[in-house]
Design goal:
Two copies of one chain form a homodimer. By secondary structure, the first copy, chain A, is α/β, with parallel strands linked by helices. Chain A contains eleven helices and 16 strands. At the A-B interface, helix 9 and helix 11 of A face helix 9 and helix 12 of B.
Chain lengths: 397, 397
Amino acid sequence: MTDLLLTNVRPFGGAATDILIRNGRIESIGRGQSAAGMPVEDGGGAIAIPGLVEAHAHLDKSMWGMGWQVHQAGPSLEDKISNERRLRRELNIDPERQSARQVALAASHGTTAIRSHVDIDTDQKLWCFEGVSATRERFRDVMDIEIVAFPQSGLMIRPGTLELMDEALANGADVVGGLDPCGIDRDPKGQLDAIFTLSQKHGKPIDIHLHEPDELGAFSMEMIIERTRALGLRGKVTISHAFCLGMTDRARAAALTEQLAREDIALATTAPASRPVPAAMEIRQAGIRLCAGSDGIRDTWSPYGNLDMLERALLIGLRYNFRQDADVEYALHICTQGGADVMELRDYGLREGAFADIVLLDTETVTEAVVARPKRKLVLKHGKPVARDGQALFDVE
Amino acid sequence: MTDLLLTNVRPFGGAATDILIRNGRIESIGRGQSAAGMPVEDGGGAIAIPGLVEAHAHLDKSMWGMGWQVHQAGPSLEDKISNERRLRRELNIDPERQSARQVALAASHGTTAIRSHVDIDTDQKLWCFEGVSATRERFRDVMDIEIVAFPQSGLMIRPGTLELMDEALANGADVVGGLDPCGIDRDPKGQLDAIFTLSQKHGKPIDIHLHEPDELGAFSMEMIIERTRALGLRGKVTISHAFCLGMTDRARAAALTEQLAREDIALATTAPASRPVPAAMEIRQAGIRLCAGSDGIRDTWSPYGNLDMLERALLIGLRYNFRQDADVEYALHICTQGGADVMELRDYGLREGAFADIVLLDTETVTEAVVARPKRKLVLKHGKPVARDGQALFDVE
């Protein structure tokens, strides 16, 4: 495990100090620490923040590094799902190779933990799960990766998927996934009962994609809340996207928010510019854990994305029209501590005792870092440098 | 005037070719051109696009390079306007110095033409106008700058402003500005009559900021349309922002769109993630000129922005959920030809006879350029290199 004295850094843009790292953890923070014989890294007055947390990714899907693929899929969710199933094999979007590239890309941007949904369906079977699992093993000292067994092509409409998810969860998947129980599966009771049963069987948390808008999404959300309460899964469920909380009936959204808070159900957002979004400040006031993610990166769904969670903080700021520095700092909080809270990362943060997952940024303030998105000067994972000046310090094919 | 042979470039990502530039203009496009004694620039297979057009900027406002200023202004438009008037002198946000910095920043990102609104009020008087005018003169060979005489603090509520605008227009301002005739001036008839009269007096076009939402904005928009029609100003009016066209009553918005098209009234957008926006594809189908801009850059209003119109194309794509390559290319069109159409730039584009305002981008496709926003490899203004590898080739203080 790594020992390192990191000198002259400014935690969250505050006063300059030193960080003493021993055995991959922050032993102490303060000036004038004795570190005889330890390697020393001069932070040069850079801002230090804890490692960025990518809390909603799809590491198995990206075509990064495969040459440009023209996007022509139709507009509906079903168009994109079936287009992807077809292209995955046609183009050989190999989940192991592609997830490894994503790990290098994420590390280069200062991300030190990722929750990745991984497609499981009766065509791919466990190909995606096994590929991302191999990548997780290979980069264990670079990135914490949590795998969600995700029924991208539907669960009830695709018999055999549930058994495959069960197998993935028995073999190391960390989280039970779900997807639009009305919109995709056309059987909300069926899907939700199935995934909550899986969660209980394996003792693992749940993360459900919920794109359904307005009252339809609210209905599915209520069914999720009901099961969370009935099964005592308080604090163990995440709803991703939750566009329905951005509906125009604010009183209805506020009532749902209150119920989410009561069951400590977390939310994940990508802060999409083109969709209604949960009201971040109401979510915050209600004490609901809120994290963020990049979603798909240059995949068959869309050409966008770069796995840069500092840029995601910018997009959060723009989406919510955060203009005061304190609010922009909250956008970054969502992309750091918010993700750690949802992934239940133990020992996270810029504090004594925590793992030394640290990112250095050469700007004057945290808000400037979010709006300017400088190349990450240095990224430490458990005290070990994994990226410098925007480049990962390890190779992938 | 500049002569140059630009070899091995791919116009809009098409087949590689050469571009022969003589006297600052594109003389011919094609392989095997004879250019004895001319300087040669090897494009290395990069994509060539015409210069980016920044069609809604505020060059006089930015605090770029002044050290970080914490943002604490209140939420209303009036809060931000009065906060700015106060800080401008307190912090010495010198319009000449700051606009020069903006020109260098814009050029570094491949922008070759800018329409800038410039604040005119009874506190600043013509300080901002004169500063940006001086910058325009200084950088005449680097950037086309169009100046809008803009009553940021209101026209009717601030007697004396109209006379100052009149003076600016007599002294080189190109466009008559306006601002929320209901929301700010509380006198739509008064403001609109005043600025349309100025337009007629000086024979200059109009560009009106219209943030007013929903039916209020629709009302102001109708008053603008009525005056455009009555005074025969077809093709001479731009409405910036036009949030009201994103209102939920789509039939109402469609009827307004039809009237805008009839009077050839152009629209400018920043594609804000947090506001309703005109439906870009409906605007396009109606044949309405649509351009884009960065709006304020790291000013007293907000910490955001970098004057990168390739990034603006990305934000347009995200705002409108453009996922197919052809649609992302349209986002870039808005930031190039769209701006040229609104600014009525003569001889614009990648075609023989046009001015050689050219940007080289090292990506495989145009869509990849928009999503990846690479450093601009080379920027030519009238054939002359003004930026290379993301750096302006000229100095400002």
